[in-house]
Amino acid sequence: MKLKRHIIFACLFFLCASTIVAQKHTIKIPKKAGIYSALLPGAGQVYTKKYWKIPVIYAGLITSAYYIKESDDLYRLYKQTYLNRLNGNKSDEFSTTTDNNLLILTEHYRRNREISALLFTLTYVLNIVD
């Protein structure tokens, strides 16, 4: 029984030792990873073998891009509706909404668009810095 334990322990020891020796310790250059990430988001993380960060980066970029598009569409809709009302065209789908509320909605979605663009840029820059 003792001999069997010693043989198992010896096998595990040599297996671990050979695995450690077989691993390559290549030095990753941060500047190179940054350039890769600037060209293609996530490429620097592939270079440094930090694969788990790639979905986080793309989730941030895609979510920000979605909200930029959505806020821009709504901003343009409310702005055009308000401008149409100023020109005397009152036949719109927002007939129950006042002019003041249209201005508030226009500014709200303009601000959301700008914040989303800032978050998109911040995510892209953090991707490069990481």
Structure characterization notes:
This protein has 130 residues and is mostly helical. It is built from five helices and no strands. The chain has helices spanning 2-22, 30-39, 43-47, 53-86, 99-129. The longest helix is centred in the middle third of the chain and has 34 residues, at 53-86. The radius of gyration is 28 Å and the shape is rod-shaped. The two termini are 52 Å apart.
Please give the share of residues in helix: over 70%
Rg over CA atoms, rounded to whole Å, is: 28 Å
- How would a crystallographer describe the biggest sheet? none
Oligomer: single chain
Distance between the termini: 52 Å
Summarize the structure.
The protein has helices at residues 2-22, 30-39, 43-47, 53-86, 99-129. By secondary structure, it is mainly α.
